[in-house]
Amino acid sequence: MKKVMAEDLYRYKFVSKVQWNKKADKAVFTVHTTDEASNSYKADAWMYEDGKLTRLTDSGNVAGIQWLDEESLFFAGLRTEEDKAAAKKAPLSVFHKLSLKGGEAEELVRIPMKVLDLKPMGENKYALLAIYDRYPAEDRNPGWEVFDELPFWRNGEGYTSGTRKRLYIMDNGKLVPVTAENEGVTGWAVDNGRILYASQVYEDVVGMTAGITLYANGMKKELVKDGIYNVGGVFFKDGEPMALLNDRVGFGATKNPLFYELGSGKPVQVSTMDEHPAGTVVGDSAYGGGAQLAVDEGYIYYTTVDDTKSVLRRLKNGNLETVLTTYGSLDAITVKNGKILVSSVGQAKLPELYKVEDGQMIQISQFNEALYNERTIQMPHPVSAQSGTWQINGYVIYPADYEEGKTYPAILDIHGGPFGAYGAQFFHEMQVWSGAGYFVFYCNPRGGD
Q: What pLDDT is stored for residue 254 in this prediction?
């Protein structure tokens, strides 16, 4: 068989953003593919029902597929040449409704902004998170960028100086801002017409902490004052507002966050486990993201990292259980009525859809299966080293043409931190190096997640 080549990336399919409906009898998810000609990704929607997979779209232009109701979905996409041309001149987002009964998608709503996320709030009413530019468009020049804020650039976002992630309500076509012009939203959730959000107000340098606000019926209630906590996420559990908070005592921004209830007027800690919730082992073969925290039947389900493994846990009334441990990643989860689906990159497998039963992962999709019959994929082997009193754990990948007794060059692949952990999941660039005749060593430095 042939060795893994860099160009194989163009053949990979990436499963992401899996979501059950309310009955947990259907799930929708996204499959991304790479497009070499346009140097971009294409995305389409798929559905899982009764053990079968069905492709719902074939345009390659389906972003953020979500449930609108039990019989229809919605997604963002510029589907006409006119809209594509208009979006090059000014920000534009168009959302479409797709009925499961069949037929073409129809336009649901269009918004003259770059919308990052949209949540239904009732008939013709939506909450949305969008990019707000504090500087008029005429002050922007395509030939350069002005940096007068820190940070001025973020991974996956590009230049951010002068912009904010801002919340809006769109009611019958009218946009009303929820947050201020100089307020940046770092996380949000919607429940029964209410919006829970974390945000930071700043003029030139973004702070390390955030406040949390509950917005309902046009009124705001401050639940957590800014300046105290790092906020790792906000969500609702059984209608009550909750958050992942780091009080910064002892270890500052790198301290692991804990779960807190926010409904009593002050944050009440409800977890004690010293780990980083809503995380997974990192790699280069997952794309599209998805939720890594879910609430179901009184439980909080969350992904985390234990040494070099990904773990799914659930918390209820102070009791913590481990639902799943895997050497792969857990890039997106959905839980409803006790039924669990995950997207995962395995030890020798690219992203696929799995169901979790009795602590085991059962593979559902076969999107990348043909590749394994054509390429030699090397399994990572555990390796450890002693550093004083600490044992550092990692892996070694052998050269694809390894013969005992011969010598080979080696690569030591060192990741950053403190958040993010290497594990044993499929890693494209490491497989390419192995195919090129290298040993590959990698581990998690002391202090890494």
A: 86
Q: Which residues pair with 309 in a beta bridge?
A: 306
175 vs 234: CA distance, rounded Å? 24
Predicted local distance difference test score (pLDDT) of residue 230: 96
Return the pLDDT at 449. 66
Look at the chain and count its residues. 449
Give ∠ CA 355-356-359 in degrees, rounded to 5. Answer: 160
308, 393 in Cβ contact below 8 A? yes
Residue 53: exposure state from Cβ atoms within 10 A (0-12, 13-18, ≥19): middle
Q: Which residues, in sequence order, are CB contacts of 74 under 8 Å at separation 6+?
A: 65, 66, 68, 95, 96, 97, 98, 108, 118, 120
> For the chain, which ranges sit under pLDDT 70?
448-449
Whether the CB-CB separation of 195 and 206 falls below 8 Å is answered with: no
Report the DSSP pairing between strands 439-443 and 410-413: parallel
Q: What is the pLDDT of residue 123?
A: 86
Q: Give me the residue label for tokens 């990979």.
A: 12
Residue (of 418, 392, 415, 444) closest to 252 by Cα position: 418
